[in-house]
Design goal:
This protein is α+β, with helices and mostly antiparallel strands. Helices cover about 30% and strands about 30% of the residues. The strands form three sheets. A five-stranded mixed sheet has the order 7-6-2-1-9, with no helix packed on it. Strands 4-5-3-15-14 form a five-stranded mixed sheet, with helices on one face.
Length: about 300
Amino acid sequence: MNLVLRVGPARPDGYHEIDSLMVPLDLADEVEVAVRPGGRGEVSCRCPGRPDLDGPANLAARAAQALRRRVGADGEVSIVVRKAIPVTAGLGGGSSDAAAVLRCLARAWQVQDPRLLREVALEVGSDVPFFLGTGAAWASGRGERLRPAPVEPRHLLLVYPRSAALAIRAGDAYRWLDEARSGKPLDRGTRRRGRRPENDLMGPCLERMAPLRSLLGWLYELGAADPIMSGSGPTFFGTFGSREAVRRAAAALSGREAGGDGVEAIVARTAARMPGVSPWKSPRSASSRSTRTSSRPT
């Protein structure tokens, strides 16, 4: 998740320079990867309960295909992603799943070149390199230049609108920001690298998606500190003093709606480190090698 997201001008390659403080959360999908020798070298990806996320377009599957091309590995790869992180929510769920697959396959295929893994991660998505790291970091460039950053633990309430009408694709959020800045001189002043949440994408997204203002207002109403949009949205989050305070605030949102549908209130906490990879042997085949890990959002 982005505690801070400052966006620079668009680059010739279409991406934007960013300056972002990224932190892992204790909210996680479970990613299970099985590598089996032989077969036709296929990569399969399933998300139980979310058939719309099955198949080769899933970032987890794309990560497996990208690493296979780079290292020339063979055998079949089977991926199962059990989702806990909301989809298209600005929380980095897909990127963290992709990084989890890269970690698993690096162990299974004995890939020991961290630079190669970072290159593959960036090929898959701008946020993926962060999830190959160890914890909170300042990200610059497209997101691939990372500097570790100590961040004190935070108790967070995430508010995610379920309405499909409020979904925001990252490309649209950045385009709206460019349009909002069109004809205006870009503020190139030096902004100190503080840790108070800020997000350059929030203003343009609120202008285009007025119902999201309700989420921001609710967080203020419930006493959240520094409520703000997460990444490219549409999730908003705020900081509370304790886990109990977050739970009370989450309960207070029960039954509320935005955009004609309900909202999901998620209690989370910033995590000190990324999860690791846990090896296990599938009971279905004594010859198969599998690894499993949990991935965490930004």
